């Protein structure tokens, strides 16, 4: 019978992050074969991961990267903010973000990409992280921007580390102008996007169903008005909606005396060429996820009644 030493257990634990007793059991089951023990733990970990996958992962981090004329953003969710502060999790998100530009917004392609320094796919690496870190985690979404000429700049709000935070923004500017000047205005606009949460670049980019809903609300509020009066009210309401929700028509947070479009126009003199905002992406962590709220009182009642 193979003798399992404390050094063997420690080595396996360092390799996998699994518990000491699990490592000892794995080595016993595999006659001290470290590689086989890693596989044994992986299989055990994956079965744990399957149980964890039903839990809601609504925390985590936004990872973002911008390199010259392209950039990408990802959202990787965990169950708790505690894990989001974990260095291993942060490295995972940063590495996935680094692969994202090549995926060009295709989530399946990113999940199938080879994770740096391994033969694993990103999807497999995530599964292994679930097993070792101990929480459900998912790569929820990714998006990218690119320009043929100009810059893509990024901004991270509530930053926890380089390229990681709770809100991530990309802004793309098409221009033949001076790149440092373009980057400066793009970054200022990215900060604006983080704060102002526009839903579209301009009114033409707002989904038709959103506009129809706004028109229906305005019509409902103004029932009984003459058709020509109602038409003017709806037209004015849509203009107000655009000023509130469309990036180029919003008041510029750095100088509220002008719109974002006007700020971009003024920046052309510094950049030395025309500037066109071709797109933006704003990811806020957990938006759209229904996070389960724990009822502490109910938990106490369950404990008091023996779990009934």
Structural description of this entry:
By secondary structure, this protein is α+β, with helices and mostly antiparallel strands. The protein folds into three domains: 6-52, Helicase, Ruva Protein, domain 3, CATH 1.10.8.10; 59-205 and 246-284, Elongation factor Ts, dimerisation domain (Tetrahydropterin Synthase, Chain A, 2-Layer Sandwich), CATH 3.30.479; 208-241, no CATH class. It has twelve helices and nine strands. The chain has helices at 6-16, 20-29, 34-52, 81-84, 87-103, 107-112, 122-133, 179-196, 208-221, 227-245, 260-271, 296-304, and strands at residues 59-67, 70-78, 138-146, 150-157, 164-165, 167-174, 251-252, 255-259, 276-284. The strands form three sheets. It has a four-stranded antiparallel β-sheet. Strands 4-6-9 form a three-stranded antiparallel β-sheet, with helices on one face. Helix 3 packs across helix 7 and helix 9 (208-221) crosses helix 10 (227-245). The chain is elongated and about 90 Å long. The model is unreliable at 46-54 and 293-297 (pLDDT under 50).
Task: Write a brief structural summary.
The protein has twelve helices and nine strands. It has 308 residues and is an alpha+beta fold. The chain folds into three domains: 6-52, Orthogonal Bundle (Helicase, Ruva Protein, domain 3), CATH 1.10.8; 59-205 and 246-284, Tetrahydropterin Synthase, Chain A; 208-241, no CATH class.
Strand content: 15-25%
Stretches with pLDDT under 50, minimum 5 residues:
46-54, 293-297
**Would you state the CATH class of the largest domain?**
Alpha Beta
Give the CA-CA distance, first to last residue: 47 Å
Q: Order of strands side by side in the largest beta sheet?
A: 3-2-1-5
Order of helices and strands: HHHEEHHHHEEEEHHHEEHEH
Kindly state the number of beta strands.
9
Shape: elongated
Helix content: 40-55%
- CATH homologous superfamily caption of the largest domain: Elongation factor Ts, dimerisation domain
Number of helices: 12
Radius of gyration: 25 Å
Q: What's the average pLDDT?
A: 87
Based on secondary structure, the structural category is alpha+beta
CATH topology-level fold name of the largest domain:
Tetrahydropterin Synthase, Chain A
The number of distinct structural domains comes to: 3
The biggest beta sheet reads:
4 strands, antiparallel
Q: From the coordinates shown, what is the CATH architecture of the largest domain?
A: 2-Layer Sandwich
